[in-house]
Amino acid sequence: MAPAPRTTVVRGKTPPPPESPERRDPTGAITVIDAREHAGEARDTAELLVGTAGLAVQDSGGYGQSKSLVVRGAAANGVLVFLDGIPLNGAGGMADLSQIPAALVERFEVLRGGAGARYGSGGLGGAVNIITRSPGPNLRASGEVTYGSWDTVLGHVAATGPLLDGQALLLLHAGRSDGDFAYEVDELPAVDDNPLTPQVRARNDARGGGGLLRYRRRLPGGSRLDALAELSLEDRAIPGTVQNPQSSGNQELGRLALGLRWSGLLGTVGQGSARGFFRRDGLEVTGDLPGAGGAQRHSVGGVELEGRRMLGARQALTVTVATSGEGVTDAQDAQSASWWRASVMAMDEVRLFSGTVNVVPSLRVERVGPYWLLAPKLGASVALGGGFDLRANVGQSHRAPSFLELYIRQGTLLPNPGLKPERALYADAAVSWHSESGVDAEPLWSATAGGFGALYENLIAYELYPPLLARPYNFDAARVWGVELEGEAHPLPWLSASASYTWLRTQNRFGDPRFFGMDLPYRPRQKWVGRVRAGPAWLNARTEVLYQSSQLVNRTGSRSLPSRTLLSAGASSTFLHGPEVTLSVEVKNLLDVRAYDFTGFPLPGRAAYVTLAVALDRDASTPSASASEEPHASTP
Questions:
Q1: Alpha-carbon 349 to chain mean position
Q2: SS3 (DSSP) at 221
Q3: Is the pLDDT reported for residue 629 higher than 70?
């Protein structure tokens, strides 16, 4: 899987916009990935994220197959994922990145480290906010189609422009893939010189589609209203495992997400926002599989109110009040459950020594079902001069097990009523440096070096439950520590490069002596990614490399996935203007390295894709360049 370059947030004295990740967590380890820079590169959402330091993607196949995130050693169900602020962590507490088409995405805002104080229960390892494409003031129509290996076809069309005194965007997308690539297997590994048997990856096919509708309008007084409606449908085959392959069985997935947000000024020294959201997920497993039949529906809806007020020239107080309810039903076994959650968060920002030092304490008190959770955090940043900055954080986060994990079977995922809430005590620190600004106001050179550590109690992780199922378990205790290094260079207008390295160490502690001191499953110890891009818009080329070390797939250490080094390359050319036409080619896994998922099935080998993108712009009759900007007051 090919990585994408990152943009590490460089903190300065310019006030960030209210919805920026830096405003949400002023001292956090934040990376912003602009997906628009990778249009035509035939990437899915997981491929765009995997280049970020501290993140590992757990992949279970090609297009449309399940993909989840591990951040700083926290399990995939300990990482919060949002779509424009709407929580996506659904059944089992995990967010499946395969259900977020890259065509929807404008950028990713990634916070690494405990996110409980700012984002709530579930943010043990971090949080990812997926920002969808924004409507614009000018008429613009665009489309893109990709065709590649194993009859993979992806496409989308979009239109944006002025509508009803505001701006609107409509995007429709669809895709499919057979995923039937060839591979070779040694059926008698204990026998020397045993000939390899050619096989074809079966039941790796998927298809899906959906749409996105966004509307934005400026209101009297400078406030703004944003509305979102998103629909996603997917149908994918269930292969089983290498030991128990399946000849039938499909998983049908669906999501409807609705959001409405008001943001504006509160007097002359404050800002405020109000958000309401609703999300409904559908899951149905069909075929000759355990638990097949019946449609499960998971619904969640809530509101969030936030206000930020200046307290003098050097201090700002932010208060957030949120409440939501969620419920699940299963037609097959008449299973149902629901509960309510509410929280209050307060964050103080104090600037000292003429803004050189920024101290940010915060605290969230949260009720999730039957559990009371407390998430404090203390962060600080120091501008050292000469382009150097220092930041550090320490705090506590929680994740309450969902009632799905506790009581309700979710297709091939079994419940475990004995689960306990997770808790993480964490700390991190990093120093960053950036040179003077160059191309597009970006620093010519920038680098960040940091370390982190966390102590987990009752960490929840899914493990295979033979023959075909998975079940969550608590680790009595675990500890995680590591190092993250990042660097970017923009030495010339037509040349850019980026690289990141992550070293991660995990240990199971206490509890069952059989697992004491062993690495946690699905956590590779090392990951290195790099990317170079060269050339003007009319013809440019790129190359990328991803190295990931071996990782365990169970607590006993009896099964592991080998290390992998994936090399990819591509080129793009915008050879026409008015309309703008871009042709791109991409070759993934250039060396045809054979990697495997956690079930033992091979992942795709070498693959090639061709993408054609067309865009037509027309000036709108009501231009407003500032219409998309966030209203904001002065900040300390």
A1: 27
A2: helix
A3: no
Q: 21 preceded by cis ω (within 30°)?
A: no
Whether the per-residue pLDDT at 241 is higher than 70: the answer is yes
pLDDT bin (cut points 50, 70, 90) of residue 624 is very low
Q: What pLDDT, in 10s, does the model give residues 171-210? A: 999 999 999 999 887 777 667 777 888 889 889 999 999 9
Contacts of 574 (CB under 8 A, 6+ apart): 537, 538, 580, 581, 582
What is residue 407's three-state secondary structure? Answer: helix
Q: Which two tokens stand for residue 89?
A: 């962590």
Which residues is 187 bridged to in the sheet?
A: none
Q: What is the DSSP letter of 403?
A: H
pLDDT for 512-554, tens place per residue?
777 788 888 889 999 999 999 999 989 999 999 999 999 988 7
Taking the C-alpha atoms of residue 531 and residue 544, their distance in angstroms, rounded to an integer, is 4
Calpha distance 321→35 (Å, rounded):
31
Look at the alpha carbons of 470, 472, 474, 477 in this order and tell me if their dihedral is positive or negative.
Answer: positive
**146: Cβ contacts below 8 Å, ≥ 6 apart:** 42, 152, 153, 154, 155, 609, 610, 611
pTM for this predicted structure: 0.90
Whether 631 shows a pLDDT value over 60: the answer reads no
E strand or H helix that includes residue 271:
strand 270-286
Instruction: Quote the CA–CA distance of 62 and 17 in Å, as a whole number.
Output: 37
Dump strand ranges (E) for 354-468: 357-368, 371-385, 388-399, 422-434, 445-465
Residue 237, C-beta contacts closer than 8 angstroms, at least 6 positions apart: 203, 204, 205, 206, 249, 250, 251
Q: SS3 for 64?
A: coil
Tell me which range, 63-67, 230-234, 414-418, is most confidently predicted by mean pLDDT. 230-234
Q: Which two tokens stand for residue 581?
A: 């036409």
CB atoms within 10 A of CB 347: 24
- Taken in order 144, 45, 324, 303, is the CA torsion positive or negative? negative
Distance CA 391, CA 299 (A): 38
DSSP state of 247: S
How far apart are the C-alpha atoms of 295 and 297, rounded to whole Å? Answer: 7
In 3D space, the residue among 148, 202, 152 whose CA is nearest the CA of residue 175 turns out to be 152
